[in-house]
Design brief:
This protein has 331 residues and is an alpha/beta fold. The protein has helices spanning 64-72, 86-89, 106-122, 137-144, 175-181, 203-211, 218-224, 226-237, 269-277, 301-330, and strands spanning 7-8, 15-16, 44-49, 92-97, 126-131, 150-155, 185-195, 214-217, 242-247, 284-290.
């Protein structure tokens, strides 16, 4: 089943595969995929959510999707380790950005995100998202979670299970507390990896641990090693549906300085790639890469890392979607 797109220029009348073009040619879309004109027969939708109204420190993640798109032109098709070509397994397209009618009311902006992703869910499209700050994951989970809560793998410097902050319940430090309260995620099937950095209060750490989440602090990651972290993660989430959320601040700022709340002592890019690759075969129902802030990313490297991690997740997701499609066809 060939899933490649081909396009024809109305000017040159030359037909070709956009993936075969040199990487600095053409409109910047996620991974050089086509812009979706319909959701019909689309397997995976690549989405931008340019919102950073939930940040508590440095802004700029609203510009993340555009820069990740630009840097994702550097991505290629065949994975160097697994040899997976996601475009042979699934129909993948850039479905555009969530366009907001309300930018200055965070809760209403979240409602608009939920509506956008609900349309994808209704059409049977699995979403892979570039943020935006981490608050966007909460409305995404509201849209895609069915009757039963799903598992969560969160790779992050912070638990994001804090309480209200300066009058907001929906800031980027709270999405997974809200998700547990709304029975969107199962805390017993939730793993938070790479948590570090001093805090003024322990509320977020306490909530994660007391609710039943497996919190693997960064010092424990260093002690265990990535392979054992992968084993533990797979044990906790099991074989049921799971969402993968990758906060760019999980990485040491030496590798990804362009983010709102950097914390030293984080993952290397190789450790992050190894970790995500070790999740192959899980039932992935959605994923995101968040908190890339281009104004603090003078070299463009953080956006490149974000695009690269998005590609890693895409490879996992394409296998999951293809497997679900095969199982559905066999019934």
């Amino acid at each position: 089943m060939n899933k490649h797109y081909r396009s024809r220029s109305p000017v040159t009348e030359r037909e070709g595969d956009p993936m075969d073009e040199v990487r600095y040619v053409g409109l910047a879309t996620f991974m050089r995929t086509p812009i979706a004109t319909t959701l019909k027969d689309l397997d995976i939708g690549l989405v931008g959510v340019p919102l950073d109204a939930g940040v508590t420190n440095r802004p700029g993640a609203r510009h993340g999707p555009r820069e990740i798109r630009n840097q994702s032109s550097n991505m290629r098709t065949i994975h160097p380790v697994t040899r997976v070509n996601p475009y042979d397994l699934c129909t993948v397209a850039d479905v555009g950005d969530v366009c907001f009618e309300t930018l200055y009311d965070l809760e209403k902006a979240h409602d608009e995100i939920e509506v956008f992703f609900s349309r994808l869910q209704k059409a049977g499209v699995t979403p892979l998202t570039a943020g935006g700050d981490h608050s966007i994951t909460y409305p995404i989970l509201k849209a895609i979670t069915g009757e039963e809560p799903i598992g969560l793998i969160q790779i992050d410097a912070h638990t994001d299970t804090w309480g209200d902050f300066k009058g907001s319940r929906s800031h980027h430090g709270a999405p997974f507390r809200r998700a547990v309260e709304d029975s969107l995620i199962d805390p017993r099937r939730t793993v938070q990896i790479g948590i570090r950095g001093a805090q003024n209060i322990t509320d977020g750490w306490d909530y994660s641990l007391e609710s039943g989440m497996r919190v693997i602090f960064m010092h424990e990651v260093a002690q265990m090693g990535i392979n054992d972290v992968i084993t533990e993660t797979r044990r906790v989430v099991g074989e049921n549906p799971v969402y993968l959320s990758f906060d760019i601040d999980s990485l040491d700022p030496a590798y990804a300085p362009g983010t709102g709340t950097p914390e030293i002592g984080g993952l290397t890019t190789l450790e992050a790639q190894t970790l995500v690759r070790g999740l192959r075969g899980l039932d992935l129902v959605g994923g995101d890469v968040v908190e890339v802030s281009p104004p603090f990313d003078p070299s463009g490297n953080t956006a490149l890392v974000g695009a690269s991690m998005m590609y890693e997740i895409l490879c996992l997701m394409s296998e999951s979607v293809a497997e679900r499609s095969s199982e559905g066809g066999a019934e």
